[in-house]
Write a structure and sequence with these properties.
Oligomer: single chain
Shape: globular
Helix content: 40-55%
CATH class: Alpha Beta
Number of domains: 1
Number of strands: 7
Low-confidence stretches: none
Order of helices and strands: EHEHEEEHEHEH
Strand content: 15-25%
CATH topology: Rossmann fold
Strand order of the largest sheet: 2-1-3-6-7
Number of helices: 5
């Protein structure tokens, strides 16, 4: 059975691109553009992994991570952002989450990171 992934990003073009790549990798993907949309989906569907942009129009991925961790404990969370410094990455991961990729990232790195998170082999910044 394919893993189900929720990808939350406010950039619709990036959501389309990432979701297409994830589907090619064999995953089932749902997307959202805001914290509110992501929470609504997380309340309805059990996901195996969350990919969260850090900066969202109605909040941030760190707060969303806390919320989804309460709804679905133990699910890996991958932050994905273009704006974070090393300090911001460390801070985000110390609060919640399992890994952090800076945009842009290659499809191969994304696929490898997701696979490692789903297998429980990764729990640190990438």
């Amino acid at each position: 059975m394919s893993a189900q992934i929720l990808h939350v990003d406010d950039d619709p073009d990036l959501r389309l691109l990432i979701s297409a790549s994830l589907r090619e990798f064999g995953y089932v993907v749902a997307t959202a553009g805001t914290v509110a949309e992501g929470l609504e989906l997380a309340q309805k569907v059990k996901f195996d992994l969350f990919i969260l942009d850090v900066r969202l129009p109605d909040g941030n991925g760190i707060d969303l991570c806390r919320e989804v961790n309460q709804l679905q404990p133990g699910r890996p969370v991958l932050y994905y952002s273009a704006y974070a410094s090393d300090e911001e990455q460390e801070s985000a991961l110390s609060i919640a989450g399992n890994a952090y990729l800076k945009k842009p990232v290659s499809a191969a790195v994304l696929e490898k990171t997701i696979a490692e998170l789903l297998e429980g082999k990764l729990d640190a910044a990438v």
